[in-house]
């Protein structure tokens, strides 16, 4: 009889241990097959409509927006000449994997803005698919799931880099797929090290800033497996795959890099945090309210990290490790802190951490009150996202939004006035790269020069050989007369227009720039 009782107890205890070990699988089943058929269909059709709309939005932006400054610099420094430039030269502007993909796209489809952005556009669609999968794994209810999916895809800064020709978008797409592999491991207990390693390697090769998040993902996986008394060999295998993939692509350019090549970022915690909070609303009218909202969500996200055994806490744990590593690197090794785009990966991590925190809360009155506050803050964030969506400019490079439009006006005005060719255009240093890109693309009908204080020439041209022949020496010495046909000016140079004898021709709201010309406007060049 005691034996029977022992056997009976063993039989009842084993399912209990099995149920505990399969808790993540229960979460996945609740989000997938465990949901009613109508619920699954509702999710599918919502995701199809929503993600198709976002993908079409990205396609429109990639095809229509004027070239941005850093896009132009990547083209001018690394893409317009030899393939060797990508692998033998390095600075923070060379996102190696993206540069190679963009070079291939330009070779196949011609040297246009759309061809330059095509790899980012395709990676953006990968990001949307990963956002769908990760949100399904993490969130159970339909409305919280839909809000999580929308928040992952509609942040203005994230949305910019799902079409802008930079490596940040492909990096966060690969990271989100790596997080999907991490959550899948929590559900099933089985890790696919090759897939995880390749996604992690792709994220690092697309942009080196992703290395912090990759290290945090692998560390969280390792800790979870130790707690569950599972082998660490799959995590080590994933690390090996990621390291080898990264080394294969990055060894050559990084071996020629110096510390001064890693210049992008912030030197203070306050400016780093402010730049990321600004991504919630690029033009916030109530900054204090936005800071309070961010603080509330940050406390919720970091509180979730304390639940070591719960799969919904994994994104919060990754986020917390990233923040600690970033601060330690800045404090001890003077590594710049993230500044908007260089901390882009923190935004989807933050979103997933908040969503995971809400899922971890129970049904007690304090928990329901916390859920209500988190839901209210999430709705406020989504409202901010929607009210700040712009299809005509990129948040980081607002000044370049009207460059192509301004050039069309200059060509029309130059034809009307019968100005000699090439037309001479002066721009502030912030607008110079995008103008130089178009000067090389549009057949040499204009030359581009850099000025400061409204009309003073710079002695250099942003380390880019300027298009067309150099200005005559007299034009650099005689400061009493404007020396160019048109001036494209941005905020820092606008106050000097009167002193330079310029009159405004056109104002561009999307960029805050002004097209000006010498006064009186000449019919022909002297």
Set down the secondary structure blueprint.
Layout: H1 2-21, H2 23-31, H3 37-64, H4 69-79, H5 84-88, H6 96-109, H7 113-138, H8 142-154, H9 156-160, H10 168-188, H11 193-206, H12 211-227, H13 233-254, H14 269-278, H15 287-304, H16 314-333, H17 346-360, H18 365-387, H19 403-417, E1 423-428, H20 432-441, E2 446-452, E3 456-457, H21 473-477, E4 486-489, E5 502-508, E6 513-518
Parallel strand pairs: 1-2, 1-4
Antiparallel strand pairs: 2-3, 4-6, 5-6
Helix pairs in contact: 2-10, 3-7, 3-8, 4-20, 6-7, 7-8, 7-10, 8-17, 8-18, 10-11, 10-12, 11-13, 12-16, 15-16, 15-17, 15-18, 16-17
Report a brief summary of the structure.
The protein is an alpha/beta fold. 61% of the residues lie in helices and 6% in strands.
Keyword list:
526 residues; alpha/beta; six-stranded mixed β-sheet; 6 strands; 6% strand; globular
Mean pLDDT: 85
Radius of gyration of CA atoms, rounded to a whole number: 27 Å
Number of E-type strands: 6
Low-confidence stretches: 1-34, 473-477
The helix-strand sequence is HHHHHHHHHHHHHHHHHHHEHEEHEEE
Instruction: Give the strand order of the largest sheet, numbering strands 1, 2, ... along the chain.
Output: 3-2-1-4-6-5
Q: Shape from CA axes?
A: globular
What is the tally of helical segments? 21
Q: What is the helix fraction of residues, given as a range? A: 55-70%
């Amino acid at each position: 009889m005691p034996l029977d009782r022992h056997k009976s107890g063993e039989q009842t205890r084993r399912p209990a241990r099995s149920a505990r070990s399969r808790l993540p699988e229960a979460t996945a089943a609740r989000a997938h097959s465990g949901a009613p058929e109508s619920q699954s269909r509702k999710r599918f059709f919502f995701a199809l409509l929503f993600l198709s709309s976002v993908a079409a939005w990205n396609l429109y932006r990639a095809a229509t927006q004027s070239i941005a400054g850093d896009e132009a610099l990547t083209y001018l420094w690394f893409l317009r000449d030899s393939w060797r430039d990508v692998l033998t030269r390095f600075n923070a502007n060379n996102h190696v994997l993206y540069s190679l993909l963009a070079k291939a796209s330009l070779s196949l489809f011609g040297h246009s803005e759309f061809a330059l952005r095509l790899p980012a556009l395709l990676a953006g669609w990968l990001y949307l698919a990963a956002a769908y999968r990760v949100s399904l794994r993490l969130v159970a209810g339909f409305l919280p799931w839909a809000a999580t999916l929308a928040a992952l895809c509609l942040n203005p800064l994230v949305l910019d880099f799902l079409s802008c020709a930079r490596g940040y978008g492909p990096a966060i797409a690969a990271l989100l797929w790596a997080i999907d592999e991490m959550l899948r491991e929590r559900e099933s207990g089985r890790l696919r090290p090759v897939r995880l390693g390749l996604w992690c390697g792709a994220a690092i090769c697309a942009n080196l800033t992703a290395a912090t998040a990759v290290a945090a993902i692998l560390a969280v996986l390792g800790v979870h497996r130790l707690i569950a008394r599972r082998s660490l060999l799959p995590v080590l295998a994933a690390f090996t795959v990621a390291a080898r993939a990264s080394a294969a692509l990055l060894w050559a350019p990084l071996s020629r890099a110096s510390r001064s090549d890693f210049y992008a970022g912030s030197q203070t915690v306050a400016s780093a945090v402010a730049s990321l909070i600004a991504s919630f609303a690029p033009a916030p009218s109530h900054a204090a309210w936005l800071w309070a909202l961010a603080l509330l969500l940050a406390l919720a996200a970091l509180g979730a990290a304390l639940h070591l055994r719960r799969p919904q806490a994994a994104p919060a744990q990754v986020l917390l490790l990233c923040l600690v590593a970033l601060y330690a690197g800045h404090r001890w090794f003077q590594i710049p802190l993230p500044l908007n785009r260089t901390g882009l990966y923190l935004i989807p991590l933050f979103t997933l951490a908040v969503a995971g925190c809400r899922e971890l809360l129970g049904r007690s009155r304090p928990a329901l009150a916390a859920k209500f506050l988190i839901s209210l803050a999430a709705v406020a964030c989504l409202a901010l996202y929607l009210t700040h969506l712009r299809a005509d400019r990129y948040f980081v490079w607002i000044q370049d939004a009207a460059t192509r439009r301004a050039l069309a006006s200059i060509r029309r005005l130059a034809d009307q006035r019968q100005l000699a060719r090439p037309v001479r255009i002066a721009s502030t240093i912030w607008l110079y790269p995008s103008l130089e890109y178009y000067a090389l693309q549009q057949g040499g009908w204009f030359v581009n020069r850099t000025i400061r204080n409204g009309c003073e020439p710079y002695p250099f041209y942003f380390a880019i050989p300027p298009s067309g022949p150099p200005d005559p020496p007299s034009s650099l010495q005689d400061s009493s007369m404007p020396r160019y046909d048109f001036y494209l000016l941005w905020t820092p140079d606008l106050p000097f227009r009167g002193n330079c004898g310029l009159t405004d021709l056109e104002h561009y709201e999307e960029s805050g720039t002004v097209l000006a010309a010498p006064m009186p406007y000449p019919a022909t060049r002297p």
